[in-house]
Amino acid sequence: MDLNEIVVISGKGGTGKTTLVASMIPFFEDVIIGDCDVDAPDLDILFEKTLDENREFVGTKKAVIDQDKCIHCGKCYESCRFGAITEDIKMKTARCEGCGVCEFVCPVNAITMVDGVVGNLFVSTTKYGKMVHARLIPGEETSGKLVSEVRKVAKSFVEKENIKNILIDGSPGVACNVISSITGATQAVIVTEPTLSGLHDLERVYQITQKFRLPVTVVVNKYDLSEDMTKKIQDFCNEKKIELGLKIPFDKKMVEAIVKKEIPSLYNKELFENIGFFEFIEKLKK
Length: 286
Hints:
Layout: E1 4-10, H1 17-24, E2 31-35, E3 49-65, H2 75-79, H3 101-105, E4 111-126, E5 129-136, H4 143-161, E6 165-172, H5 176-182, E7 187-192, H6 196-211, E8 216-221, H7 227-240, E9 243-248, H8 252-259, H9 264-267, H10 269-274, H11 277-285
Parallel strand pairs: 1-6, 1-7, 2-5, 2-6, 7-8, 8-9
Antiparallel strand pairs: 3-4, 4-5
Helix pairs in contact: 4-5
């Protein structure tokens, strides 16, 4: 069975990416769900779930100082370029980048590098299938690694349960976590808004997808807030030969659904029928 891994991304946060993914999930009968927005995960809020697994995720190694061995020579303090060691030779663990220089320069072996926990990875069961999601500890810099782990675990369930589809709520932006979200995926859906910055972000994230030769579909959320900007987005899609798969209008019922922790496509099914949402889903299923 050929794997169909759909990753929904956006050039920035707040475009409606997670709302779209949540709306899509009930219409995939055969799916594993992944939330790769590890800096601000909230896809699971809309789904009743049973937590099956919660494990710590180790990202980089962190320096630990054995104060009994330390002779306070100051070499580690002088060598650290990240300000992770104070002048009185105390560790600021949150600032440690795991480079290991302090361990190397210590003359009495008072510093060792140990595994550093940077977040948690969860596996939950929902009525629509398994959900793999994670949360990065605020301030940690290894979101790309955690995103890769979410996708790795999601794919393990695909192989184990012989499931065809993986639906990923990807990371927003254009940084390494986005690259980790889309590497090896089958297709990408880019969600944007009808603003000048929305068009700019669309152009940037589209460029990244093309480095991986990913088929792309664009969704314009709240398209009716600016018909002029929506037209410019359509022109960009036509120029690049990108499919404009969906235009979602601004609707107060969408907000109501989220407030009530309801899935928008089930809460306001008539709207989704009118905009061709279900035809859009069928195309993504291939």
